[in-house]
Amino acid sequence: KSLRDTLDQCKNKLGSAVILLTAAEGDKVSLVAGVSSDLTDRIKAGDLVREFAQRLGGKGGGRPDMAQGGGTDVAGLPAALKAVPDWVQGHLS
Fold first, then answer.
1. What are the CA-CA distances from residue 70 to residues 15, 24, 38, 54, 84 (Å)?
2. Is the pLDDT of residue 93 over 90?
3. What is the mean pLDDT of the chain?
4. Separation of CA 12 from chain center
5. What is the mean pLDDT of residues 74-89?
6. What is the average pLDDT across 81-85?
7. pLDDT tens column, 24-34
8. Would you say 62 and 40 are in contact if contact means Cβ atoms under 8 Å apart?
9. Residue 31: how many CA atoms within 13 Å on its side-chain side?
10. CB neighbour class for 85 (10 Å; exposed up to 12, middle 13-18, buried from 19)
11. Pairing mode of beta strands 28-35, 59-62
């Protein structure tokens, strides 16, 4: 719930944005993604979460503007996060 609340705050402050927030606790990773309405025609939050949850050994999905997921590969989180900007840029181009 705190990730979703933080996501809503970020979307309100940033305006046009693609956001992926993560949290690791123990052997689990939680992900929440948000995409502003002006960008959902090019990037879906569900696709973003699904892609990166799979990279972390999990699954996820949701609506075009907000999605949630999780995984179990906590050690893989830094590499996954490093890949997010390129993934987003590839979908915006």
1. 26, 9, 26, 8, 15
2. no
3. 95
4. 16
5. 97
6. 97
7. 999 999 999 99
8. no
9. 33
10. exposed
11. unpaired
The mean per-residue pLDDT over the stretch 56-60 comes to 97
Check if the beta carbon of residue 44 is closer than 8 Å to that of residue 35.
Answer: yes
Of 69, 79, 81, 88, which Cα lies nearest the Cα of 29? 69
**Can you tell me the distance from the alpha carbon of 1 to that of 33, in angstroms, rounded to the nearest whole number?**
13
18's CB contacts (< 8 A; 6+ apart) are: 33, 34, 35, 36, 39, 43, 48, 88, 92
- Helix/strand number for the chain, H first, E second: 3, 4
Q: What is the pTM of this model?
A: 0.92
Phi-psi region of 54 (alpha: psi -120 to 50; beta: other; left: phi over 0): alpha
